[in-house]
Write a structure and sequence with these properties.
Structural class: mainly alpha
Helix content: over 70%
């Protein structure tokens, strides 16, 4: 997870950031060791790779938003490492709502 965070923070463009963002998701899911969650993640990743999603990313993902996502990711990973499920859940919910708002509007 830390490696994914570091690479995403050094990303030079949106595709590179997205690659490491996706890898972070995979690392988190892998750490959970939950087959159902892994299947859901695979389905979501299939959607993320569709052209419509790519257009939403290009339109909505700015350097400022990447910085916000990176900070949110750091907080999520920190809570997971601390085994603080309540904090991880709250941070993750905040992140997902932010991404949804940025991609689709309020």
């Amino acid at each position: 997870m830390e490696e994914c965070l570091a690479h995403a923070e050094r990303a030079q463009d949106v595709p590179e950031f997205e690659r490491w963002d996706g890898m972070l998701h995979v690392a988190i899911i892998g750490a959970a060791k939950n087959g159902l969650l892994a299947d859901v993640c695979d389905a979501i990743n299939a959607i993320r790779n569709q052209p419509e999603w790519a257009r939403l990313k290009v339109r909505s993902l700015t350097p400022a938003r990447c910085a916000v996502y990176e900070e949110q990711h750091r907080r999520i990973v920190s809570a997971l490492k601390d085994r603080d499920g309540d904090q991880a859940r709250a941070d993750l919910q905040e992140h997902l709502l932010q991404v949804r708002t940025n991609r689709l509007g309020s």
